[in-house]
Design brief:
CATH architecture of the largest domain: 3-Layer(aba) Sandwich
Structural class: alpha/beta
CATH superfamily of the largest domain: HUPs
Number of helices: 12
Radius of gyration: 31 Å
Largest sheet: 7 strands, mixed
Distance between the termini: 54 Å
CATH topology of the largest domain: Rossmann fold
Number of strands: 27
Strand content: 15-25%
Strand order of the largest sheet: 10-25-26-27-23-24-11
Length: 560
């Protein structure tokens, strides 16, 4: 077992240790991650990925990637490609080739024939509405289908006809024959095959019947030698069915299913159907919109794989459902970026300063550390001239003593540069300030100059002549309600109208224009940002805010 740092609780790790000690697990641990290729992966899947791949790593085992591709009507190759990319970005690699449930369609068909031959499955002609009526309720037993007592020979012939396309969709299904009076409704003769005359992205038109998830899942696990089949808690009631199939089929192995609590975060929805609705109704700009809780969206927003893995570890693995505060995820993001993101300066609402006693033709190349605590990130060059941009909110004509920035008649330091004294302003016809005229003291270069001048505040800036113009996107939480999907379809009523603000006239240090896509920075005094992986280029720099320097959700800075 590898010595992987772990901080969160994980009852599955304890189970595996006990299985090893008792001899139930003799060979290597084998887990699997089995996503449906019908959408992009989200933060909940990230927890499952970290769990399945992480356990395999910790115990020196293997983790398979297997696509549960049993519903071709909703599946696309684009989703398959995106899922692979997400897993690799999180830092994991699956064992062996990519596997698909469709790889086992021939074997699953034979297994279905075996159940029919042994009297444990039958072809049923009930319509969907009739089947619901016969199924019963949580308090009333179901009734046997009138087609339940067909002979194995008749069922085999009908099932072959389903396979050969002789029947219409919805006209017949294959059902397991278990117990229509079972307290667990999943055991009331569940459907295991449906007619779907839809082309499949892996098998083409070879099949017009497809197995359902419950029938496919356990048998695929057995065929792959999975030792620990880990699912979320909604599959707990399906475990008796999982075990029933394994007990009644000639499978090569007997995997065991274990359930854990899914990851629920406030101010978030993770239902694939609802995420798809956000995309289809253009509430967001696609599955990788930085406001989406998809792995692709979080990556584009500037979250790091390390932070997501740390977050999943912090949350732990439990048996009981709960809701995790979004602040825990945001803490993990800030913690990682604070330690690793180089520093830089960006002015988002520019106000020009003219340093009247600085030579017009002079251009200095000042230096600043890449990170205050990381010598390995080196230094960066800051061109400095007579005109610079500062944030408009960093200047006031008058202010009280709590305001630690630039005020007429007062001094402030430009970060890694000089101390300035604000002397006058220029205004337009509407009374808006267009320029602030200042003077500087050339003996005040650096954070601790020899003359001992210590102004009250330090503000960031960018050279007006050498800085680069950029687009900055400020992202906030997508929903204003902490449980946005509690009301079903009304979750769209809780979309935050201020979840995206686009600033077109920002100014950045010139070096940032050449930053690689996905390069992350702390814009000093502003927040953590990432060069957009899709649109950022030197001709048009585009930066997305990953997260503010501190939690300002629901509040506004006073500027004091």
């Amino acid at each position: 077992m590898t010595d992987t740092a772990v901080t969160g609780n994980n009852f599955l790790r304890t189970i595996i240790k006990e299985d090893i000690a008792s001899g139930r697990l003799v060979g290597e641990l084998v887990t699997r991650f089995p996503p449906e290729p019908n959408g992009f992966l989200h933060i909940g899947h990230a927890k499952s990925i970290c769990l399945n791949f992480g356990l395999a790593e910790q115990f020196g085992g293997r983790c398979h990637l297997r696509f549960d591709d049993t519903n071709p009507a909703k599946e696309e190759q684009a989703y398959i490609d995106a899922i692979q990319e997400d897993i690799r970005w999180l830092g994991y690699e699956w064992s062996g080739p990519i596997r698909y449930a469709s790889d086992y369609f021939d074997t699953l068909f034979e297994y279905a024939q075996h159940l029919i031959s042994t009297g444990h499955a039958y072809v049923c002609d009930l319509s969907a509405d009739e089947a619901r009526e016969y199924r019963g309720t949580l308090t009333e037993p179901g009734r046997n289908s009138p087609y339940r007592d067909r002979s194995p020979e008749e069922n085999l012939a009908l099932f072959a006809g389903m396979r050969d396309g002789e029947f219409d969709e919805g006209s017949k299904v294959l059902r397991a024959k278990i117990d229509m009076a079972a307290p667990n409704i999943n055991l009331r003769d569940p459907i295991i095959y449906r007619i779907r005359k839809v082309s499949h992205h892996q098998t083409g038109d070879n099949w017009c019947i497809y197995p359902n998830y419950d029938f496919t899942h356990g048998q695929s696990d057995a065929l792959e030698g999975i030792t620990h089949s880990i699912c979320t808690l909604e599959f707990e009631d399906h475990r008796p069915l999982y075990e029933w199939f394994l007990a009644h089929l000639p499978v090569p192995a007997q995997p065991k299913q274990y359930e854990f609590a899914r990851l629920n975060i406030n101010y978030t929805v993770t239902s694939k159907r609802k995420l798809k609705m956000l995309v289809d109704e253009k509430v967001v700009d696609g599955w990788d919109d930085p406001r989406m809780p998809t792995i692709a969206g979080m990556r584009r927003r500037g979250y790091t794989a390390t932070a997501l893995r740390n977050f999943c570890d912090m949350v732990g693995v439990a048996r009981s459902e709960g809701v995790v505060d979004m602040a825990m995820l945001e803490h993990a993001i800030r913690d990682d970026l604070d330690k690793n993101a180089p520093r830089a300066m960006c002015v988002m609402d520019p106000l020009k300063l003219v340093i009247t006693n600085y030579p017009e033709d002079k251009l200095e190349q000042l230096t600043a550390p890449g990170h205050p605590n990381r010598d390995d990130l080196g230094e960066r060059t800051l061109p400095f001239g007579r005109e610079v941009y500062i944030e408009r909110e960093d200047f006031r004509e008058e202010a009280n003593k709590k305001f630690k920035r630039l005020v007429l008649g007062k001094k402030v330091r430009l970060r890694s540069a000089y101390v300035l004294l604000a002397e006058s302003v220029i205004k337009d016809a509407e009374g808006n300030i267009t320029e602030v005229h200042c003077s500087y003291d050339d003996g005040t270069l650096g954070e601790d100059p020899a003359d001992g001048v210590k102004p009250k505040g330090v503000i960031h800036w960018v050279s007006a002549s050498q800085g680069k113009q950029a687009v900055v996107r400020l992202y906030d939480r997508l929903f204003t309600h902490e449980a946005p999907d509690r009301g079903g379809e009304e979750f769209l009523d809780h979309v935050n109208p201020d979840s995206l603000t686009v600033l077109e006239n920002c100014w950045i240090e010139p070096g940032l224009a050449d930053a690689a896509p996905e390069a992350r920075f702390q814009f000093e005094r502003t927040g953590y940002f990432v060069a957009d992986r899709r649109e950022h280029c030197s001709d048009k720099p585009v930066f997305n805010r990953a997260i503010a320097l501190r939690d300002t959700w629901g509040s506004k800075e006073s500027g004091e």
